[in-house]
Amino acid sequence: MIAAAPMYGKSHSQGEYVFDHSWANALENAGGRYYPKLQIAVPFTPATGRRFLTRPGFETIGTAALVQGAVQVASENGLSSLHVTFCTEAEAQQGDKMGLIHRMGQQFHWENNGYDNFDAFLASLSSRKRKTLRKERATAQAFGGDIIRLTGDQIDDAHWDAFWQFYQDTGARKWGSPYLTRAFFDEIHDTMRNDILLVMAERDGAPVAGALNFIGRDTLFGRYWGAREHHPCLHFELCYYQAIDHALAYGMDRVEAGAQGDHKLARGYMPVATHSLHWIADAGFRDAVQHFVTAEAEAVGEDIEILTEMGPFKRAP
What pLDDT, in 10s, does the model give residues 78-95? Predict the structure, then answer.
């Protein structure tokens, strides 16, 4: 074997974070059928990484074979489309050359530019932004309890029970129907708890809010957050500042704070491009999607440029 790519048949677009609901509506309003579709992804994980796995030395031919095979599977089964989400930029460029539609998106990441500690990170910010972050941290930490970071065997069933309630509340307010089950959290505890960072705000031993992160080789991946009480700036502290603290403590290169969120910019998380590839069976619909994606890419590029200029860091002299 020289190459492999896991592929999923999906009857919806939940959990992808590369939003194609408008494409589905357009095709179905025109009398077509968008679902089921094929997806090459790490399920429910908007984190960039290799999607076409190849042996060293077989990158080009292996990726080409996987793309051709995936398109063939979709075509032979009469499926509307194939989607490769959060692939690397190199994979996106190769797929684009093979005729797939290359779509750009945007996330916000914090980069560790050699900071020794959080104060060193603060020192890289403009004076006004530095004061704002310090004030937000002080406000959050004055909620009336303690903020703790847990990983591995420090996490127990009571923590997951509490986080499940947080997740349910946030999901119901944001998405209408949370899609991860309680059993999912038991599964990740059993199989990968040493790769999990759970940040909890507790008062008198009772969890008030929490944020779930996954620990990579050089990156901390922020995923879900929730709370049973509202406290000013607590979301920023648990999701963004505590993640930076952990990354600095363990010498990690970056924090990926999940999809979307311009509010992350003021907290030191800068805009970066993300990439996906798409194959559409219907020629007319494919042309329409290509036109849309081309215009969207121009807007995303402009947005990244403007937001980078607006970032909280000191201007070079």
Answer: 999 999 999 999 999 999
